[in-house]
UniProtKB/TrEMBL annotation:
Domain PUM-HD intervals: 1-211
Name used for this protein in its record: PUM-HD domain-containing protein
Record InterPro entries: ARM-like, PUM-HD
Organism of origin: Knipowitschia caucasica (Caucasian dwarf goby)
GO molecular-function term, one example from the UniProt record: RNA binding
Transmembrane segments: none
Length: 211
């Protein structure tokens, strides 16, 4: 009986242990695999995401930078060109005015002053010209135009042009240019430079009168 019981117990224990071990191993393996998979997936995902993000960011940044640079360059170039043109025009006008004014002023001032002064004086210089023209113009114009204009024009043009052009050009030029350009330019353009006279005479006349 003892032997039989031993054998039976062995068999039973084997079966029970197998079943128990299977269940235990299943539970343990599930938990272990979850933890392992979490760790592995984290590491793998980090590496993969790094590589993917690097490639994606490179492509995206290239496209974005191209678009941004185009827009930025357009805005920058507009601002730069405005500033550059202002500086260049100031320098160019000084040189051009020195050369042109000497030749042009003698011929133009006689013809243009008579025609322009009538129209400009009525609209712009009504208050100023009554006081200034009577006292100053007679004495100054003879001496200044010959002696001072060459020296003064560089300084005057820089100071006056900025002040005069903003105030006078907006108000006067719209009205004056239509009348003056039709009458004056037909006579003057034969003797005077086409491009210079349009810009110069409008600015010079206003600056001289202000002085």
């Amino acid at each position: 009986m003892e032997e039989v019981m031993e054998e039976v117990m062995e068999e039973v224990m084997e079966e029970v242990m197998e079943e128990v071990m299977e269940e235990v191993m299943e539970e343990v393996m599930e938990e272990v695999m979850e933890e392992v998979m979490e760790e592995v997936m984290e590491e793998v995902m980090e590496e993969v995401m790094e590589e993917v993000m690097e490639e994606v960011m490179e492509e995206v940044m290239e496209e974005v930078m191209e678009e941004v640079m185009e827009e930025v360059m357009e805005e920058v170039m507009e601002e730069v060109m405005e500033e550059v043109m202002e500086e260049v025009m100031e320098e160019v006008m000084e040189e051009v005015m020195e050369e042109v004014m000497e030749e042009v002023m003698e011929e133009v001032m006689e013809e243009v002053m008579e025609e322009v002064m009538e129209e400009v004086m009525e609209e712009v210089m009504e208050e100023v010209m009554e006081e200034v023209m009577e006292e100053v113009m007679e004495e100054v114009m003879e001496e200044v135009m010959e002696e001072v204009m060459e020296e003064v024009m560089e300084e005057v043009m820089e100071e006056v042009m900025e002040e005069v052009m903003e105030e006078v050009m907006e108000e006067v030029m719209e009205e004056v240019m239509e009348e003056v350009m039709e009458e004056v330019m037909e006579e003057v353009m034969e003797e005077v430079m086409e491009e210079v006279m349009e810009e110069v005479m409008e600015e010079v006349m206003e600056e001289v009168m202000r002085r």
